[in-house]
Design brief:
This protein is of the alpha/beta class. It is built from 6 helices and 9 strands; from the N terminus they run ααβαβαββαβββαββ.
């Protein structure tokens, strides 16, 4: 990406896309098997305790998190998405927060941080700082779980297959540039290992994958 202003403009355009697509979000679900495996993996992980959900969207995963968690704090930059999520996921154990994750800081630490279909929208330039945010959100023994996909159609690749920038359209044809980094599970594991995370990333059927793990604490110095 050319420079910081270009990246900021692109991130704004990406956020605008999700504001605009919120009402039709479910119509854009990927037509592949594999979603059930993601859900089973999340149940097996058991996201217990206080859970932070980043980029919660319309609450796709929030009810499932609440089956295990004592409480969920769900953050998203789109008021439209949060409106749908709060209509779907009521109750006193969930708190919704409207915030831009590229500027937001947590007020406290959580037992689990979860993000669904968000990591692929984090630009490569912000990968390390995003994971630093995740570390700052977690208790020392906290755990992380994410699900995502690497699916991009040929007509979305407006800058070619090596660029993380693609184009997505609303049902009415309006086009937006967003980021979609096609992480490969083994490379993602390696990239995370290099910045201090121990995370296993598992491919599923279709273009999906899920990851879980933690960031070992540096050994205490006597
Ligand atoms: C692909 S959707 C994922 C939604 C949900 N987690 C799911 O699995 O269906 C990406 C979400 O990221 C949110 N988002 C985009 N830019 C953001 C930002 N800068 N800060 C916080 N959320 C953002 C969008 O509003 C949208 O809800």
């Amino acid at each position: 990406m050319a420079d910081r202003d270009d990246l900021a403009t692109l991130l704004d355009e990406q956020a605008s896309f999700y504001q605009a697509v919120a009402a039709e979000y479910d119509d854009h679900a990927l037509p592949f098997p594999g979603g059930g495996e993601l859900s089973d993996a999340l149940d097996a992980f058991r996201p217990a305790g206080s859970v932070l959900e980043l980029a919660c969207g319309p609450g796709t995963w929030t009810n499932q998190l609440l089956r295990h968690a004592t409480d969920v704090t769900a953050v998203d930059a789109s008021a439209e998405m949060l409106g749908i999520a709060s209509a779907r996921v009521g109750g006193q154990r969930v708190r919704f927060v409207l915030a831009d994750l590229f500027g937001w800081r947590p007020e406290r630490r959580y037992d689990v941080v979860f993000f669904g279909f968000w990591l692929s929208h984090v630009p490569p330039e912000r990968f390390a700082s995003f994971w630093s945010l995740v570390a700052d959100c977690l208790q020392p023994d906290g755990r992380v779980f994410f699900v995502d996909d690497a699916y991009r159609t040929g007509d979305e690749l407006i800058e070619g297959e090596h660029s993380p920038v693609i184009q997505r359209r609303l049902t009415d044809g309006t086009a937006y540039r967003i980021l979609k980094v096609p992480h490969r599970p083994e490379d993602l594991e390696h990239q995370l290992d290099q910045i201090g995370w121990r995370i296993e990333v598992h491919p599923t059927a279709g273009p999906f994958y899920w990851g879980s793990g933690r960031r070992p604490q540096p050994a205490q110095v006597a």
